[in-house]
Amino acid sequence: MNKAFVRESDDGAPRCPRCGSPGQEVLRDTLRVHVPEPLRESLTESAWFCPFDRCEVVYFDAFQRHLLTDQIRTPVWPKDPEAPLCACFGFTSQDIEADLAEGGVKRTRACVQRAQSAEARCATASPSGQSCVAEVQRYYMQRRQAQG
Ligand SMILES: [Zn+2]
Ligand SMILES: [Zn+2]
């Protein structure tokens, strides 16, 4: 048997049934915010978020049951480029583009600071259940490098 096929990701997280990306575990509270009631029942208590931008699967469980982007209440970054990166404050990739166009970091830095404060609600406001900070910084760096 192909070893790569059975290998689990480093932290043992289940992989997305469609694209094979390691999932990020999400809280039940996060699902409550983003998934309409009857659909939520179709996943087990433990569910994972698929972080791959070109995959339509948003949440899945260990039995390979899954929910797609059009079944979720809100648009999901990075699957939808119009969706906010920081769902807590509605910070979008356009804010980052505006910073880059000015050669500054004003909006991005303000978002990162707010996302690290007690106001932040990343765990439930963000469909991934992860802090927005890492994603905001990653996207900013990626775009800045692309600018050359
Ligand atoms: Zn996936
Ligand atoms: Zn946030």
Fill in the keyword field for this structure.
148 residues, alpha+beta, N-terminal domain of TfIIb, disordered N terminus, binds zinc ion
What does this structure look like?
The structure is a single chain. This protein has 148 residues and is of the alpha+beta class. The relative contact order is 0.14. It has helices at 3-6, 28-34, 37-40, 93-102, 106-115, 122-125, 132-147; strands at 24-26, 47-49, 57-60, 66-68. Strand 2 and strand 3 (57-60) form a beta hairpin. The chain has seven helices and four strands. Helix 4 packs across helix 7 (132-147) and helix 5 runs antiparallel to helix 7. The chain folds into two domains: 3-71, N-terminal domain of TfIIb; 93-147, no CATH class. The model is unreliable at 1-9 (pLDDT under 50). 37% of the residues lie in helices and 9% in strands. It has a four-stranded antiparallel β-sheet with strand order 1-2-3-4. Residues 86-88, 115, 120, 122, 125-126, 132 line the site of one zinc ion (ZN).
